[in-house]
Amino acid sequence: MSIRVVAENHIRADAVDEYLAVTKELVEKTNTLDKGCISYQLARDSSDPLHFAVIEEWEDQASLDAHMKAEHFTRLIPELGKFGSGKPGGIAIFERVY
Amino acid sequence: MSIRVVAENHIRADAVDEYLAVTKELVEKTNTLDKGCISYQLARDSSDPLHFAVIEEWEDQASLDAHMKAEHFTRLIPELGKFGSGKPGGIAIFERVY
């Protein structure tokens, strides 16, 4: 079964435009280049415009591991860290059951 | 853009089998019957076997609203409430950005 990831970030209001630009590149490169990527989307909380989640689906753990070593991941993820509001986000990794 | 839902539950160890049986029916009926359902999966936290998430994608808010009125939803969701460990879960609704 596939691997599901939900990675949440809380962003400063003054950094949302930059955050959206960096995540756009991350989403496009991941979907285009990363083998085993079933789905990789950025989503925005309907009730909190400063709360975002990257919602991911990977064929297996190996493809997720390879993604985290890709050039676009290692370059862009540290960029995203600059935009955080300080409110804790978090990453949860799941295995699909059904 | 689509609507994404992440609905998390923490389940009692002695209720996991029943939880899995009820969510199996919920996942199968939702994917088979509910118009506008792009994806509706049950996933289990890789580091906490009592932590589950239903990870959903809907074409639009109207299809999510209709799902929440479906017979299988109104019958099975109250069943799931019986299996909770007491640790807070939660539901987050997102709009896809990219």
Describe this structure in words.
Two copies of one chain form a homodimer. Chain A has 98 residues and is an alpha+beta fold. The first copy, chain A, has one domain (3-95): 2-Layer Sandwich (Alpha-Beta Plaits). Helices cover 36% and strands 33% of the residues of chain A. Chain A is built from three helices and four strands. Chain A has helices at 16-33, 61-67, 71-80; strands at residues 3-10, 37-45, 51-58, 90-96. In chain A, strands 2-3-1-4 form a four-stranded antiparallel beta sheet. In chain A, helix 1 runs antiparallel to helix 3 (71-80). Chain A is globular, with a radius of gyration of 13 Å. The mean pLDDT of chain A is 97. At the A-B interface, strand 1, helix 1, strand 2, strand 3 and strand 4 of A face strand 1, helix 1, strand 2, strand 3 and strand 4 of B. Strand 4 (90-96) of chain A pairs antiparallel with strand 2 (37-45) of chain B.
Characteristics:
homodimer; 98 residues; alpha+beta; Alpha-Beta Plaits; 4-stranded antiparallel sheet; 3 helices; 4 strands
TL;DR of this structure?
The structure is a homodimer of 98-residue chains. With 98 residues, chain A is α+β, with helices and mostly antiparallel strands.
CATH fold label of chain A: Alpha-Beta Plaits
Largest interface: A-B, 26 and 27 residues
- Domain count of chain A: 1
Helical/strand content category of chain A: alpha+beta
Largest sheet of chain A: 4 strands, antiparallel
What is the CA-atom radius of gyration of chain A, in angstroms?
A: 13 Å
Oligomeric state of this protein: homodimer
**CATH uppermost class of chain A:** Alpha Beta
- In CATH terms, what is the architecture of chain A? 2-Layer Sandwich
